[in-house]
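anyone seen this seq b4? input:
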Amino acid sequence: MKTRNQVDEIVTAQAENDSAWEAPIQVRRPTKLVTIFCDGSSLGNGRNAARAAAVALLGFKGLWRAFGTYLGRATNQQAEIAAAALGLEALKEPCRVRVHTDSRYVIETMKGNFRRKTNHDWWKRLDQAAARHQIEWQWSQGHVGHVIQEAADKAARKIAALGHVEPAVLQDAVDKIGVIEPEESSPEASELF
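predicted toks r here
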């Protein structure tokens, strides 16, 4: 009968000598459902002096966090793409995600219904952010009083107007939402974003 140390030595020696030996690969399937409402804003869209920003509000088990970025000179379409990417990039692990945006351009392009004729670098960023997640793209009509969509819109416009991200603007967006439960719940939100 072999001792535990002898077995460990045999396994270690076999692993060192067997070039085909590899540790088993574990594939984690996303189980946590996160809801993202995102919006982009470009004040002066299409002009040289345009000021753009993107905001993503991430919800998990009724808790919400806001992420925003000032984009400088960008179009409204670019800001909308950046907002979706920003939300997905904020997730620390693969998740099931419901992305809500008022941009038909983003929704239809990500579903494969629109061709990508322009904004290729912006789409590349979104593709990379989306790659590790299972995503359901959902259109949300803007400016109809939806609390979360309106909070994202207001924060994006405010950041664009300020020309930088002000933490108080993001906190105000979260405060306006309060505690609203996303469709399903799982582990702690701090583990996700």
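The longest strand covers residues 33-43. Residues 1-21, 183-192 have pLDDT under 50 and may be disordered. kinda curious what u guys think
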